[in-house]
Amino acid sequence: MSKLSNKKVAILLTDGFEEIEFTEPKKALEEAGAEVSVIAPDSGKV
User: Fold this and answer.
1) Of 11, 31, 44, 46, which residue is the least packed, with the fewest Cβ within 10 Å?
2) Which portions of the chain are predicted below pLDDT 70?
3) pTM as predicted
4) How far is CA 13 from CA 1, 2, 26, 31, in A?
5) What is the DSSP letter of 5?
6) Sheet strands (E) in 1-46
């Protein structure tokens, strides 16, 4: 069983973020077993 199995994690994003600042942590969280959701102030692309 992974350390974050059955855990939910939210990543907050807004305009101006660097893609690597999002993709690498998201990947690591998912590999650890977390269910990752992305939250942004507006709907659509960030």
Assistant:
1) 44
2) 1
3) 0.82
4) 29, 25, 12, 20
5) T
6) 8-12, 35-39
